[in-house]
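Q: What residues go here?
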């Protein structure tokens, strides 16, 4: 009886079951084709472009980035910069540098190009610009064979061999092109450490992100102005020949010369000093350098360094440590704090390795330490060089933030680089990092200077620039 009912059910619903099965198979097939990229071909055959398929989608880039993010809303992009590194935007190029020597750096450039310009054309053109730029500075630059990335059909890369400032350099250049928009990235380091640093440099370049969702705040954003820090109450700005800092009331400068400065407290028993040297030979650790330096001061005995603290550093070869200090000065017990940085890059120029070191010393008589330590630390934290372009400043101070540099990479500063970009961009592309297009809103008629970096491949009306409306929808700027 039950078997007869079952047979009767399948007989009655045979047509519906077959149709449902076919639908399930078609959906599964479409899903599989989508995952393999074949859906784009099917949509094209049906007259449905990929732009229309993603009709409701306009999204900002959102790469994973472990470094501090620096925003440029007026130009619709952001970058990630390691602590202690320099960054600058000049000649339409983002420079992110470990130091001013240009031996370890990342450059990023964007452009809106003519449709006929291929990825290979762009990479070859930029290679020629960098070759002329490097040769102008007395170096060499050679691009190796262009290679494709299988999983990224819009991207190609090439290895680089160069010589910059007597250093043998290795690097990689990447170009990605989606329709008319091109992103160029190049990173390099001394050849002997490139493999070790490549992942780190690749992550820096991968932090670059474009803002494609144009809010009214972004469309009206202006370049950020430098904000002057206020001097704390009880302090005054001091600017000498070599150094500057917030100086506490009652403290005087007892000595200032290149590489050294000392401040004395109103009690004449409290000291804050700073010194640096760039002429070290041999291997050093922060503690060894402190002990060696204090050994030359005959008035100080019974030196003890305790509570060692390692400060974070993302500059290769740069180590910073702090110590609590106790000693006797001419028999009187003193307490204090020492901050020391040693920079020994694991590469050499012409076979010669060098090292630099700096030290901050805070000291006073033991019974007075708790009363003055906060004041001494505030002065130390405000410390800087008068010369803002001081070479290797990031390894002569305990810098814990990325620093916006007044000058870009020496590659970007080159007249050959600047001339090459102007010549090529006038012929084949419009620079994106600082470029704009004048467009207006169809709904309000308002005109905007729209940053080229905000161009989106996908949107409700295909490729273009999209303003976000109050209802969450998008309008294409015309």
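A:
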């Amino acid at each position: 009886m039950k078997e007869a009912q079952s047979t009767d059910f399948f007989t009655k619903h045979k047509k519906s079951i077959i149709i449902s099965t076919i639908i399930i198979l078609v959906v599964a097939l479409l899903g599989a084709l989508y995952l393999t990229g074949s859906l784009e071909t099917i949509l094209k055959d049906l007259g449905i472009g990929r732009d229309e398929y993603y009709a409701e989608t306009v999204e900002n880039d959102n790469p994973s980035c472990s470094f501090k993010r620096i925003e440029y809303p007026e130009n619709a992009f952001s970058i990630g910069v390691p602590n202690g590194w320099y960054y600058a935007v000049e000649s339409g190029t983002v420079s992110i540098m470990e130091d001013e020597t240009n031996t370890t750096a990342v450059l990023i450039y964007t452009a809106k190009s003519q449709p006929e310009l291929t990825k290979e054309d762009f990479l070859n053109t930029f290679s020629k610009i960098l070759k002329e730029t490097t040769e102008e500075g007395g170096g060499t630059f050679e691009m190796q064979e262009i290679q494709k990335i299988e999983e990224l059909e819009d991207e190609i890369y090439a290895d680089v061999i160069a010589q910059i400032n007597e250093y043998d350099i290795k690097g990689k250049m990447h170009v990605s092109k989606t329709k008319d928009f091109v992103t160029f990235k190049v990173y390099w380091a001394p050849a002997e450490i490139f493999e070790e640093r490549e992942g780190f440099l690749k992550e820096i370049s991968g932090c670059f992100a474009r803002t494609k969702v144009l809010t009214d705040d972004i469309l009206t954003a202006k370049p950020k102005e430098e904000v002057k820090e206020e001097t704390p109450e009880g302090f005054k700005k001091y600017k000498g020949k070599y150094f500057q800092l917030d100086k506490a009331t009652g403290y005087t400068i007892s000595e200032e010369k290149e590489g050294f400065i000392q401040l004395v407290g109103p009690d004449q028993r409290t000291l804050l000093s700073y010194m640096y040297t760039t002429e070290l030979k041999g291997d050093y650790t922060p503690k060894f350098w402190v002990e060696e330096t204090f050994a030359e001061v005959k008035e100080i005995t019974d030196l003890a360094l305790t509570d060692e603290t390692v400060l974070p550093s993302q500059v290769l070869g740069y180590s910073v440590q702090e110590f609590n200090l106790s000693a006797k000065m001419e028999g009187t017990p003193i307490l204090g704090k020492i901050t020391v940085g040693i920079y020994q890059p694991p590469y050499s120029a012409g076979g010669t390795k060098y090292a630099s070191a700096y030290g901050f010393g805070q000291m006073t008589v033991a019974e007075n330490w708790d009363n003055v330590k906060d004041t001494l630390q505030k002065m130390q934290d405000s410390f800087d060089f008068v010369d803002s372009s001081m070479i290797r400043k990031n390894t002569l101070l305990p810098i814990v933030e990325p620093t916006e540099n007044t000058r870009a990479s020496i590659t970007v500063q080159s007249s050959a680089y600047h001339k090459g970009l102007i010549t090529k961009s006038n012929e084949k592309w419009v620079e994106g990092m600082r470029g704009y297009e004048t467009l207006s809103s169809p709904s309000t008629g308002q005109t905007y200077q729209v940053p080229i970096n905000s161009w989106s491949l996908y949107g409700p009306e295909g490729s273009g620039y999209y303003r976000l409306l109050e209802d969450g929808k998008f309008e294409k700027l015309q």
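A: Context that may help when evaluating the design: The chain has a mean pLDDT of 85. Residues 14-36 form the longest helix (23 residues).
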